[in-house]
Amino acid sequence: MATRRTPPPIANISDNLLEVKNLTVDFISASKAPVRAVEEVSFVIPRERTVALVGESGSGKSVSALAIMGLLPTQNAKVAIHSKIEYDGRSLLNLTRPEWQLIRGSRIAMIFQDPMTSLNPVYTVGFQLAEMLQIHKHMSSKESLARACDLLAEVGIPEPHRRINAYPHELSGGQQQRVMIAMALACEPELLIADEPTTALDVTVQRQIMLLLAELRERRRMAMLFITHDLGLVSEVADHAVVMRKGTVREAGPVRSLFSAPQDPYTKALLSCRPSVSRHGKRLLTIDDWMNGQSKAIAEQSVAEAPAELVHKHVAVPTLESKSHALLEVQNLRKVFQRSSGWFKRDDFVAVEDVSFQLKRGQTVGLVGESGSGKTTVGLCLLRLHQASAGKVLFDGQNLLDMTQQEFAKYKRRLQIVFQNPYASLNPRFTVGEILSEPMQLHGIGSGAADWEKRALSLLDKVGMPASALKRYPFEFSGGQRQRIAIARSLSLSPEVVILDEAVSALDVSVQAQVLNLLKDLQKDLGLSYLFISHDLEVVQYMSDTLLVMNKGQVVEQGDAASIYAQPQHVYTQTLLAAVPKVQEALAV
């Protein structure tokens, strides 16, 4: 491992709004040794500037932000005595509750990652906004509601006078996040802390939120601390960046110089883990590759193994000849959700309309689009988890949609799915061994407990998990490890087609690279066919041979993945591509 560099100062600016010096945070447990979450972290935020904290989950970014806000749990979090957090020359450590009430919201405000857990579901958004204004600005009920409408309009909520009476669940994810921004700005803070504010959003909505934050920061002359694991976003919004790993600062400096000439191996790793056109067909480098000094050798091997036309032209190379027959063929698929809007009235929703494509053995079809475009509905209809309204799904020439449940049962083994959220898709009461063996038991595979365990161990080995995982429970693993377990479960029945529904969207960029490499390896070794569903165009293009772009239930563009990415024809595809954050390609590997 390379020697850790001493982080350079972020800027030579004396007029700093916030200064963090040697921040060290330990979490104390009565039964376990203290866990150091943050160690000797220092950075400054100049007035009217944006500083980004960058790193993977567990790097200490959010803990640092909570320490600044005085929101660390007092019962088990301990800030070291020598640590300093000064805001406008005043220490924020050891403030009383009344003192914090004068600072939080009015001078420092925070936007959290998930708006649905931050907004109260039983109150309208107008009530929640007005309540803040009444408490902090001492406005009357009438004044606060009028100001709430103005704030909703300022953050781009359509029809604010109507939306003010809406409950959080009645708004889209992007609108919920806009409401959170409005609440953060209600008391006109000088510093805004945005903790992963766009992680759960589609790429186009993400861009809208980022542009909104940049505009509001400039108009209101605020400073901003932007917390993210996405270096693409950092390159577009921040003036300076602080790269964190395992609670320490690895590198810091102006964004332009940090990206053009990164010094620390970890920064280089974060920049190179992301799929891109220039790396299509090459094995993605991971954090461990860089930290172990193996990045150059792996990159050279990847280029040597790739077909010449792929290396030079960056075009998708089919794994089989184009004349091979389709394993799965979808013809004119349609799905309508029936819903009632009152007595004797129907307000049916067409989720999927006239979708057709072919999936050949050993190849990947990518399905891309925003939330609500119909991508997941297509996948669930193929598995008959939703009943299609019209169309055909031909598997080896047999229409799955016309089969009885008994006839379809023997095809279930041949089609499997990996869902988006590895935290919700695994039974928390089952051990990993039970999770992997249950499908075998249900489908009569294997001869008993000993055989199921042997097969489960083989599956764990295939997805790069240790044998010791067999007796452990899902909560004992990280998100990336859980997704590997979910992939192993999907392979337990030896399927021919695997539907990957946003299977890597919840993962950090480095863990995402590991899982994408794993999927590529499994496809090569087992001859799997993938339907890869995602809203991330770069990931889909990296994985796919053929690409379908969906919008409002319809396929608006379809064809070779690399060609569509290089020269999109439809306006919607162009809009999606334009919204993808572009990280400067600074590393020659």
What's the total helix number? Answer: 23
Structural class: alpha/beta
Helix amount: 25-40%
List unreliable stretches of 5+ residues: 1-13, 303-323, 585-589
Describe the strand arrangement of the main beta sheet, using strand numbers: 7-8-9-3-10-11
Mean pLDDT: 85
How many extended strands? 23
SSE layout and pairing:
Blueprint: E1 16-27, E2 35-46, E3 50-54, H1 61-69, E4 77-79, E5 84-87, E6 90-91, H2 97-101, E7 108-111, H3 115-118, H4 125-136, H5 141-154, H6 160-163, H7 173-185, E8 191-195, H8 203-220, E9 223-228, H9 231-237, E10 240-245, E11 248-254, H10 255-260, H11 265-272, H12 287-291, H13 295-305, H14 308-313, E12 326-337, E13 340-342, E14 345-346, E15 349-360, E16 364-368, H15 375-382, E17 390-395, E18 398-399, H16 405-412, E19 415-418, H17 432-442, H18 449-462, H19 479-491, E20 497-501, H20 509-526, E21 529-534, H21 537-543, E22 546-551, E23 554-560, H22 561-566, H23 571-578
Parallel strand pairs: 3-9, 3-10, 7-8, 8-9, 16-21, 16-22, 19-20, 20-21
Antiparallel strand pairs: 1-2, 1-4, 1-5, 5-6, 10-11, 12-15, 12-17, 13-14, 17-18, 22-23
Helix pairs in contact: 4-5, 5-7, 7-8, 17-18, 18-19, 19-20
